[in-house]
Amino acid sequence: MKDLRPIIWDNEKNQLILIDQRKLPNSLEYFVCKTYEDVAFAIKDMVVRGAPAIGVSAAYGMALAELNNNNIACGSKRATKTKGFRLIEKAHNELKNTRPTAVNLFWALDRCMEAYKNNKSILNEAKEIHNEDIEICKKIGQIGEKIINDGDTILTHCNAGALATSAYGTALSVIRFAHYNNKKISVIADETRPRLQGANLTAYELNYENIPVKVITDNTAGFLMKMGKIDKIIVGADRILKDYTVFNKIGTYSLAVLAKYHNVPFYVGAPYSTFDYENSIEDIIIEERDEKEVKYINNINIMPEGVSVYNYAFDSTPAELITGIITEKEIIYPNKK
Ligand SMILES: CSC[C@@H](O)[C@@H](O)C(=O)COP(=O)(O)O
Hints:
2 domains, S-methyl-5-thioribose-1-phosphate isomerase activity, amino-acid biosynthesis, IF-M1Pi
């Protein structure tokens, strides 16, 4: 079976093709980006989501800005070098403002800006970031699968799978490679309110590869741990600080606390591009999304008029709750002396 590739660069038409994740699991449709503004919209509206995937998409957004810029430069209204630079800077800023928490976005955009400043092709840089991400995710799976035992039931949160990256995923790459190595595993996917990435995306991609998966409401996780039905938890990450504080989808912290209480090993799968060595916890902006995501289910209001909500998209989990961080190079054990 062909593996899921959420990000495709169309070399003939010079356009970016994304799996439209808003439409899953009911239909597999594609969203075409011809300009960097299309890419900015796709990230904001969560056509594409997941830390590595938004980084790679944003890099192609920069490439589209460069290509469209070259078209202007070649046309009748030939742009001056300074005007060209300003246009690339504008794309860089607009793409940076799409989502605030996942560091891969800023990392990929800065890498493309640097390439541009050094007179290199942004498109080549974007393709490099894309190909690297595929290899890195594969490595995370190959290194991480060693922690999985035959017969394990693994709980995961949100979607840290192929759909959140260029292929394989981070947390789900570990699960995939255990499955590829014939370990009999099963997965419990938190539905992940309010956007339901677990129910819509994780269940979709595991089912697509015939990896056994069951979906639970988020508030079922503790009870399953109490009954001894969870052997391990593996989640992804949107940002990891130098003290190994992990920012990930809202609900990750609650899971980690529950895991500690129930002695369930708690792992994070993430590439080094997710590490942020510069900022500390108080510098990180936790995205707050539209309250409609909580207030409405299937376009039907579920709350009394005038009542407000909290809709934080991410939370932070301290290193003391984390058993290991699986990267493309090694497994880091933050609490091993
Ligand atoms: C491999 S991706 C890790 C995270 O990006 C993922 O778990 C997550 O929290 C995604 O959040 P989302 O809001 O869907 O972009």
